[in-house]
Amino acid sequence: MKLVTPDLGLVIWMSLTFLTVLFLLSKFAWKPILKMIKDREESIEGALQSAEKAKQEMVRLQSNNENLLREAQIEREAMLKAARDAKDAMIHEAKATAKAEADRMIALAREAINNEKQAAVTELKNQVAQLSLQVAEKLIREQLSSDEKQKELANKLVAELKLN
């Protein structure tokens, strides 16, 4: 049992050695170890705060991006609407211009047709008058070709004049 129970001298030397090592550790090693632990703890805390700030910044940036995207979509819709309105206005204006031009051309064509019609009617009247004169001339020549027919026509005209 002697092996299991320590001797009093051994206990004193071990206690003295333990206290010496404890003193040396507290004097030279304990403060630097605690300082390193504290520095490590502060750096971890700083990293956690930086990560939290970065996370908040990411949320803010994402919110800004969504707002910018919404604004861009609204602006795009406004631009598309303006383009559609401009297109419709241009089409309406082109149709109105084309209709006005067509109406003007139709009016000119009608006027030209009426002028041609009047010219044709005038020409036809002139031709009818010429033909009538030619027919009358031939008839009169035929009726007045002999002296007897001339006398007969003169007597007939005088008789008609007396009746009137």
Describe the structure.
There is one protein chain. By secondary structure, the chain is an all-alpha fold. It has one domain (8-163). The chain is built from two helices and no strands. It has helices at residues 8-143, 147-163. The longest helix has 136 residues, at 8-143. It is rod-shaped.
Number of domains as seen in the coordinates = 1
Assembly type: single chain
Proportion of residues in helical segments: over 70%
The whole-number mean of residue pLDDT values reads: 89
Biggest pleated sheet: none
Beta strand %:
under 5%
Determine the N-to-C terminus distance.
Answer: 192 Å
Radius of gyration: 65 Å
Shape: rod-shaped
Report the count of strand segments: 0
Total count of helical runs of at least 4 residues: 2
- Low-pLDDT sequence parts: none
Structural class by secondary-structure content = mainly alpha
What series of H and E elements makes up the topology?
HH
Secondary structure blueprint with pairings:
Blueprint: H1 8-143, H2 147-163
Keywords:
2 helices; rod-shaped
In short:
The protein has 164 residues and is mainly α.
